[in-house]
Specification:
CATH superfamily of the largest domain: 2-enoyl-CoA Hydratase, Chain A, domain 1
Structural class: alpha/beta
Strand content: 15-25%
GO molecular function: isomerase activity
Number of strands: 11
Shape: globular
Keywords: Isomerase
Protein name: Enoyl-CoA hydratase/isomerase family protein
Order of helices and strands: EEEHEEHEEHEEHHEHEHHHH
Low-confidence stretches: none
Number of domains: 2
Pfam family, one: ECH_1
Mean pLDDT: 96
InterPro entries: ClpP/crotonase-like_dom_sf (IPR029045), Enoyl-CoA_hydra/iso (IPR001753)
Radius of gyration: 19 Å
CATH class of the largest domain: Alpha Beta
Strand order of the largest sheet: 1-2-3-4-6-8-11
Largest sheet: 7 strands, mixed
Length: 259
Amino acid sequence: MPERSFQNISLDLRDSVATLTLNRPPLNILNIQTLQEMNEAIESLNKKSGVRVLVVTSEGEKAFSAGVDVAEHTKDKVKEMVDIFNQFFFLLEDVDGVTIAAVKGAALGGGCEVAMACDLIFAADNLKIGQPEIKLAVIAPIACAYLPRLIGLSKTNELLLSGDLIGAEEALRIGLINKVVSLDSFEQELQSFVKRFSSNSLVGIKHTKKSIRLGLKDSYPQSLEKIGQLYLRELMDTKDANEGLSAFLEKRKPSFKDI
């Protein structure tokens, strides 16, 4: 059911799956008001329990988002724009569930950054993705932070320093996106993709995401020590972890409560 009414986005929650939809077709430009609404939506979801998957998508087939509003990126507005934009990524990082960018058409600049900040990118075969900021003599701060972790330094240098756009198959090949499907079957395939994650316990999802991030922060021995402590002191105190293990030993399907 719809969570509340927004002007530039919509937020829908059905069972354990939330869907945030950019609703400014055909290009779904990210202006300050849209970003504020996106932040409010994510903030409200982070206060709810039981949201196993968040899908970030858009209306229309031409563009997931062609990026931030250049008219609001001028010297007098750029600080407000950057602060609000950065807040979205901080809030997205706090989402316990799996975050999936469901992308059709162009994902450019800030639109590309929104997609890459999600845990997974599910794309239609009409995808065009990239960071063309260099062509305006500016940088893509979020991409500079995220892309090296996703596709390595060499490919990051190539994409950010050229400003070139790439298609779906190339994005899949270099590991930027997770799956490509035909535009005609996009919605049906997306539902199947989401179910792969929404059937899992939120407890397991949350602690897996936390452990992966710990693995990126420190050396291998330090990371392993911290992840081990999380496993023993946090995860094994949860009902779902014990239910999952019991179900396996009893040869039955687990009944998870996300606690």
